[in-house]
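Good morning,

Attaching, inline, the backbone tokens for the sequence recovery test we're adding to the shared suite. The designed sequence is right after.
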């Protein structure tokens, strides 16, 4: 298998390994096609294009991109459920989406062509993790409206691998099939990977006896410290996969074994920009909000969609076979950024501090305490790995480390192991807002 000899063959060499200049020409052609499609659909994005003076795809170049109009989540909500659809209803073959922030769903109609693009980019993502036709992919992302399960499923089938469609939850059954079917790839949220790893350890299974070689973990924020925990618990290479339903689902970008810790963006289908708070482009290496343009999608194509996700962009690894631009792990979400007493804090920074301490388990909750509006406070509930830890010393150490990293003080509470609620399905909830009444977790005060 390719992971052993360090060679990670490309699934689509013409696309993933294209000469960047040739790819730019393809992107420019596709961008013009997209603009024509949007104008023909005559919806919100057509109106905005016309207001910006664009009459046809032929009017735009890649260099013009920063001047073209954008769309955002608010537009999707205002046109709920399918006001942004750009094809006749009969061309839609499925719907996916997410429950989204504030409980408002975002729905995305896919055509057969869109599903085909999705299968392609997901096959590449799995291939980059070393999967091949001989692989067995254990898919423990949720199946349903959420794009995780079905996205991996499409990609694994396109690659010709064997997919085990487990969906989330059912820990005992997951473990049984991991042991019996000996998959080489695991796909699930990073928090579920830790949960599975802990459950395996509790059953006395040594990670070296597991068949798993790599995993694609995403759909929620996770840090380098969580990566080490997962790799240790499961004995595999833990890779990050990123995506959002509005753009396609998982597969927008994915780390490969040779991408040096960053995620290859499938930029022949999804053009990426990073912009500052005013919408101006930021240089490579500077954190910015990711703005995506779906170059090839037809059901609900989006021109310059503000994702709300913050990351850094970079070119390809010099000399590597994959010539795609890369993005860092997500640094946070624009709207998750907490502003506490004038200091900007991303929850991932807090997590990095917590998980760097090997006394702390990966189950924690960050609480933005705004009960006293004039004196907002950050509270952090953590659990120690062992009951024998001196909780007062641990709380003081974490408090100091957080103050050093964030520049503000936090109230740290060390709770008994098992106090922080676990998620078996869906995304982990690691941030809560507390404005009145009972604390989100007993013992936080
Ligand atoms: O979470 C798609 C997905 C499924 C990605 C499986 C990876 C694996 P949504 O439910 O629409 O789609 O949520 C998208 O989740 O805007 C990010 O804020 C967050 N997110 C997704 N992947 C990552 C990741 C799927 N690797 C939203 N790291 C995005 C951090 C992520 N956050």
């Amino acid at each position: 298998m390719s992971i052993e000899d360090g060679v990670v063959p490309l699934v689509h060499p013409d696309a993933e390994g294209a000469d960047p200049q040739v790819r730019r020409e393809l992107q420019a052609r596709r961008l013009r096609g997209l603009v024509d499609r949007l104008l023909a659909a005559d919806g919100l994005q057509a109106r905005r294009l016309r207001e910006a003076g664009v009459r046809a795809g032929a009017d735009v170049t890649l260099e013009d991109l920063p001047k073209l109009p954008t769309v955002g989540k608010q537009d999707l909500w205002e046109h709920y459920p399918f006001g942004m659809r750009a094809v006749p209803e009969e061309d839609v073959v499925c719907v996916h989406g997410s429950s989204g922030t504030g409980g408002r769903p975002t729905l995305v109609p896919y055509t057969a062509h869109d599903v085909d693009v999705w299968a392609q980019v997901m096959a590449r993502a799995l291939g980059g993790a070393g999967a091949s036709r001989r692989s067995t992919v254990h898919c423990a992302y949720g199946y349903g409206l959420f794009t995780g399960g079905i996205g991996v499923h499409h990609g694994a089938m396109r690659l010709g691998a064997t997919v085990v469609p487990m969906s989330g939850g059912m820990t005992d059954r997951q473990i049984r099939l991991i042991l019996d079917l000996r998959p080489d790839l695991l796909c699930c949220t990073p928090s579920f990977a830790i949960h599975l790893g802990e459950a395996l350890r509790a059953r006395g299974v040594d990670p070296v006896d597991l068949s798993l070689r790599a995993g694609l973990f995403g759909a929620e924020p996770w840090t380098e410290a969580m990566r080490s925990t997962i790799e240790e618990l499961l004995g595999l290479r833990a890779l990050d996969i990123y995506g959002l339903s509005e753009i396609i689902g998982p597969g927008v970008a994915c780390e490969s074994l040779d991408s040096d810790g960053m995620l290859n963006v499938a930029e022949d289908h999804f053009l990426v920009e990073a912009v500052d708070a005013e919408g101006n482009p930021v240089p490579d290496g500077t954190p910015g909000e990711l703005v995506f343009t779906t170059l090839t999608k037809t059901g609900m194509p989006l021109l310059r969609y503000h994702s709300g996700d913050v990351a850094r962009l970079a070119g390809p690894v010099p000399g590597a076979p994959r010539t795609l631009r890369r993005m860092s792990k997500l640094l946070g979400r624009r709207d998750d950024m907490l502003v506490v007493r004038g200091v900007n804090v991303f929850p991932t920074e807090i997590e990095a501090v917590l998980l760097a301490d090997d006394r702390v388990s990966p189950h924690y909750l960050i609480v933005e305490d705004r009960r006293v509006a004039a004196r907002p406070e950050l509270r952090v509930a953590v659990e120690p790995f062992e009951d024998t830890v001196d909780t007062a010393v641990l709380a003081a150490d974490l408090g100091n480390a957080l103050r050093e990293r964030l520049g503000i003080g936090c109230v740290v509470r060390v709770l008994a192991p098992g106090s922080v609620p676990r998620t078996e399905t869906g995304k982990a909830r690691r941030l809560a807002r507390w404005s009145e009444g009972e604390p989100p977790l007993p013992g936080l005060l």
